Amino acid sequence: SQKIEQNSEALNIQEGKTATLTCNYTNYSPAYLQWYRQDPGRGPVFLLLIRENEKEKRKERLKVTFDTTLKQSLFHITASQPADSATYLCALGRGYGNKLVFGAGTILRVKS
Amino acid sequence: DTAVSQTPKYLVTQMGNDKSIKCEQNLGHDTMYWYKQDSKKFLKIMFSYNNKELIINETVPNRFSPKSPDKAHLNLHINSLELGDSAVYFCASSQALHTQYFGPGTRLTVL
Predict the structure, then answer these.
(1) Long-range pairs for B8-12 at CB < 8 Å and ≥24 separation?
(2) Are A10 and B41 in contact (CB under 8 A)?
(3) pLDDT tens digits for B48-97?
(4) Do A46 and B100 touch (CB under 8 A)?
(5) Hey, are the CB atoms on A96 and B55 less than 8 Å from each other?
(6) Facing B48 at nearest CB: one of A32, A45, A99
Protein backbone atom coordinates (compact mmCIF):
# COMPACT_ATOMS: atom_id res chain seq x y z
CA SER A 1 0.00 0.00 0.00
CA GLN A 2 1.06 3.61 -0.48
CA LYS A 3 3.27 5.05 2.20
CA ILE A 4 4.41 8.59 2.93
CA GLU A 5 7.27 9.25 5.32
CA GLN A 6 8.27 12.53 6.85
CA ASN A 7 11.00 13.22 9.42
CA SER A 8 9.56 11.50 12.45
CA GLU A 9 11.54 13.56 14.91
CA ALA A 10 11.11 17.27 15.45
CA LEU A 11 13.51 19.54 13.63
CA ASN A 12 15.11 22.18 15.84
CA ILE A 13 16.99 25.00 14.15
CA GLN A 14 18.32 28.42 14.95
CA GLU A 15 16.60 31.56 13.71
CA GLY A 16 18.01 32.74 10.41
CA LYS A 17 19.06 29.27 9.24
CA THR A 18 17.42 27.30 6.45
CA ALA A 19 15.06 24.53 7.51
CA THR A 20 14.84 21.52 5.21
CA LEU A 21 12.01 19.02 5.60
CA THR A 22 11.79 15.72 3.74
CA CYS A 23 8.85 13.83 2.31
CA ASN A 24 9.46 10.36 0.85
CA TYR A 25 6.83 8.13 -0.65
CA THR A 26 6.50 4.58 -1.96
CA ASN A 27 3.95 2.61 -3.97
CA TYR A 28 2.44 5.76 -5.40
CA SER A 29 2.66 7.86 -8.55
CA PRO A 30 1.30 11.27 -7.61
CA ALA A 31 0.31 13.83 -10.19
CA TYR A 32 1.10 16.55 -7.68
CA LEU A 33 2.40 17.10 -4.19
CA GLN A 34 1.34 19.74 -1.69
CA TRP A 35 2.75 21.13 1.52
CA TYR A 36 0.57 22.36 4.36
CA ARG A 37 1.29 24.06 7.66
CA GLN A 38 -0.63 23.13 10.80
CA ASP A 39 -0.53 25.07 14.05
CA PRO A 40 -1.72 23.48 17.33
CA GLY A 41 -5.50 23.42 17.57
CA ARG A 42 -5.99 24.60 13.99
CA GLY A 43 -6.66 23.15 10.59
CA PRO A 44 -3.93 22.72 7.98
CA VAL A 45 -3.18 25.72 5.77
CA PHE A 46 -2.04 25.27 2.17
CA LEU A 47 1.45 26.53 1.34
CA LEU A 48 2.64 25.21 -2.02
CA LEU A 49 1.69 22.78 -4.77
CA ILE A 50 4.16 21.21 -7.21
CA ARG A 51 3.21 19.05 -10.17
CA GLU A 52 4.97 15.90 -11.31
CA ASN A 53 6.49 17.66 -14.32
CA GLU A 54 7.93 20.48 -12.19
CA LYS A 55 11.27 20.28 -10.46
CA GLU A 56 11.06 23.29 -8.20
CA LYS A 57 8.58 25.87 -6.94
CA ARG A 58 9.19 29.00 -4.90
CA LYS A 59 7.05 31.34 -2.88
CA GLU A 60 8.71 34.08 -0.85
CA ARG A 61 10.99 32.26 1.66
CA LEU A 62 9.61 28.83 0.73
CA LYS A 63 11.02 26.44 -1.86
CA VAL A 64 9.80 22.97 -2.78
CA THR A 65 11.54 20.40 -4.96
CA PHE A 66 10.00 17.27 -6.38
CA ASP A 67 12.03 14.32 -7.64
CA THR A 68 9.75 11.62 -9.06
CA THR A 69 12.72 9.31 -9.65
CA LEU A 70 13.80 9.43 -6.02
CA LYS A 71 10.14 9.65 -4.94
CA GLN A 72 11.02 12.55 -2.72
CA SER A 73 10.11 16.15 -2.04
CA LEU A 74 12.18 18.63 -0.08
CA PHE A 75 10.63 21.67 1.56
CA HIS A 76 12.94 24.56 2.44
CA ILE A 77 12.28 27.62 4.58
CA THR A 78 15.08 30.15 4.24
CA ALA A 79 15.89 32.78 6.87
CA SER A 80 13.67 30.90 9.32
CA GLN A 81 11.86 32.77 12.08
CA PRO A 82 10.29 31.62 15.37
CA ALA A 83 6.90 32.27 13.74
CA ASP A 84 7.68 29.45 11.29
CA SER A 85 7.45 26.96 14.17
CA ALA A 86 4.61 24.56 13.33
CA THR A 87 3.92 21.08 11.95
CA TYR A 88 4.43 20.76 8.21
CA LEU A 89 2.47 18.13 6.30
CA CYS A 90 3.12 16.83 2.83
CA ALA A 91 0.25 15.43 0.81
CA LEU A 92 0.11 13.54 -2.47
CA GLY A 93 -2.72 13.60 -4.96
CA ARG A 94 -3.60 12.17 -8.34
CA GLY A 95 -6.66 13.61 -9.91
CA TYR A 96 -10.41 13.25 -9.95
CA GLY A 97 -11.96 13.28 -6.54
CA ASN A 98 -8.89 15.18 -5.43
CA LYS A 99 -8.12 12.58 -2.80
CA LEU A 100 -5.08 13.69 -0.87
CA VAL A 101 -2.93 11.25 1.08
CA PHE A 102 -1.14 12.97 3.95
CA GLY A 103 2.08 12.23 5.75
CA ALA A 104 2.18 12.37 9.54
CA GLY A 105 4.00 15.71 9.47
CA THR A 106 7.24 17.09 10.82
CA ILE A 107 7.36 19.44 13.79
CA LEU A 108 9.63 22.40 13.15
CA ARG A 109 10.90 24.52 16.04
CA VAL A 110 12.81 27.68 15.28
CA LYS A 111 14.67 29.13 18.25
CA SER A 112 15.69 32.75 18.59
CA ASP B 1 -14.84 36.28 7.17
CA THR B 2 -14.42 32.59 7.91
CA ALA B 3 -13.95 30.57 4.72
CA VAL B 4 -14.68 27.11 6.12
CA SER B 5 -16.49 26.92 9.44
CA GLN B 6 -17.41 23.96 11.62
CA THR B 7 -19.66 23.57 14.61
CA PRO B 8 -19.21 22.65 17.32
CA LYS B 9 -15.52 23.15 18.04
CA TYR B 10 -15.61 20.74 20.96
CA LEU B 11 -17.92 17.79 21.47
CA VAL B 12 -17.85 15.61 24.57
CA THR B 13 -20.32 12.76 24.72
CA GLN B 14 -20.97 9.31 26.10
CA MET B 15 -20.47 6.04 24.28
CA GLY B 16 -23.54 4.95 22.37
CA ASN B 17 -24.84 8.46 21.70
CA ASP B 18 -25.53 9.93 18.25
CA LYS B 19 -24.00 13.27 17.30
CA SER B 20 -23.63 15.58 14.31
CA ILE B 21 -20.96 17.99 13.15
CA LYS B 22 -21.82 20.74 10.70
CA CYS B 23 -19.63 22.37 8.07
CA GLU B 24 -20.17 25.36 5.83
CA GLN B 25 -17.93 27.02 3.25
CA ASN B 26 -18.41 30.44 1.70
CA LEU B 27 -15.72 30.07 -0.96
CA GLY B 28 -18.06 28.91 -3.72
CA HIS B 29 -16.18 25.61 -4.01
CA ASP B 30 -17.76 22.54 -5.61
CA THR B 31 -16.04 19.89 -3.51
CA MET B 32 -16.12 19.30 0.23
CA TYR B 33 -14.42 16.72 2.44
CA TRP B 34 -14.37 15.17 5.88
CA TYR B 35 -11.06 14.14 7.40
CA LYS B 36 -10.21 12.44 10.67
CA GLN B 37 -6.98 13.28 12.52
CA ASP B 38 -6.14 10.77 15.22
CA SER B 39 -3.85 11.08 18.23
CA LYS B 40 -0.82 10.26 16.07
CA LYS B 41 -1.69 13.27 13.91
CA PHE B 42 -2.39 11.26 10.75
CA LEU B 43 -4.94 13.09 8.63
CA LYS B 44 -7.11 10.57 6.79
CA ILE B 45 -9.85 11.30 4.33
CA MET B 46 -13.27 9.86 5.11
CA PHE B 47 -15.67 11.30 2.53
CA SER B 48 -15.80 13.75 -0.34
CA TYR B 49 -18.75 15.35 -2.09
CA ASN B 50 -18.75 17.17 -5.41
CA ASN B 51 -21.86 19.25 -6.08
CA LYS B 52 -23.79 17.21 -3.51
CA GLU B 53 -22.68 13.90 -5.04
CA LEU B 54 -20.61 11.45 -3.00
CA ILE B 55 -17.34 10.82 -4.88
CA ILE B 56 -15.01 9.47 -2.20
CA ASN B 57 -16.13 7.02 0.44
CA GLU B 58 -13.18 5.51 2.24
CA THR B 59 -13.39 2.48 4.49
CA VAL B 60 -15.39 4.06 7.25
CA PRO B 61 -17.88 2.32 9.57
CA ASN B 62 -21.52 2.60 8.51
CA ARG B 63 -22.13 4.51 11.72
CA PHE B 64 -20.69 7.55 9.92
CA SER B 65 -23.05 9.16 7.44
CA PRO B 66 -22.31 12.37 5.56
CA LYS B 67 -25.04 14.59 4.17
CA SER B 68 -24.72 17.46 1.75
CA PRO B 69 -27.93 19.52 1.50
CA ASP B 70 -26.24 21.91 -0.94
CA LYS B 71 -22.72 22.45 -2.23
CA ALA B 72 -21.89 24.92 0.55
CA HIS B 73 -22.72 22.51 3.37
CA LEU B 74 -21.48 19.08 4.38
CA ASN B 75 -22.57 17.56 7.67
CA LEU B 76 -21.34 14.44 9.40
CA HIS B 77 -23.63 12.32 11.52
CA ILE B 78 -22.22 9.62 13.77
CA ASN B 79 -24.39 6.92 15.32
CA SER B 80 -23.61 4.78 18.34
CA LEU B 81 -20.37 6.55 19.20
CA GLU B 82 -17.43 4.44 20.31
CA LEU B 83 -14.27 5.29 22.26
CA GLY B 84 -12.19 4.89 19.09
CA ASP B 85 -14.14 7.67 17.41
CA SER B 86 -12.38 10.21 19.63
CA ALA B 87 -10.32 12.40 17.31
CA VAL B 88 -10.30 15.77 15.62
CA TYR B 89 -12.56 15.94 12.57
CA PHE B 90 -11.77 18.46 9.85
CA CYS B 91 -13.97 19.67 7.07
CA ALA B 92 -12.32 21.03 3.92
CA SER B 93 -13.31 22.39 0.52
CA SER B 94 -11.59 22.83 -2.82
CA GLN B 95 -12.07 24.06 -6.35
CA ALA B 96 -9.36 24.27 -8.98
CA LEU B 97 -5.66 23.52 -8.52
CA HIS B 98 -6.41 20.88 -5.92
CA THR B 99 -5.74 23.25 -3.02
CA GLN B 100 -7.84 22.36 -0.02
CA TYR B 101 -9.06 24.85 2.55
CA PHE B 102 -9.59 23.37 5.99
CA GLY B 103 -11.95 24.33 8.76
CA PRO B 104 -10.77 24.79 12.36
CA GLY B 105 -11.65 21.24 13.37
CA THR B 106 -14.04 19.62 15.82
CA ARG B 107 -12.46 17.80 18.74
CA LEU B 108 -14.69 14.84 19.58
CA THR B 109 -14.18 13.09 22.91
CA VAL B 110 -16.16 9.93 23.61
CA LEU B 111 -16.28 8.91 27.28
Answers:
(1) B8/B106, B9/B104, B9/B105, B9/B106, B9/B107, B10/B106, B10/B107, B10/B109, B11/B106, B11/B107, B11/B108, B11/B109, B12/B109, B12/B111
(2) no
(3) 998 888 888 888 899 999 999 999 999 999 999 999 999 999 999 998 65
(4) yes
(5) yes
(6) A99
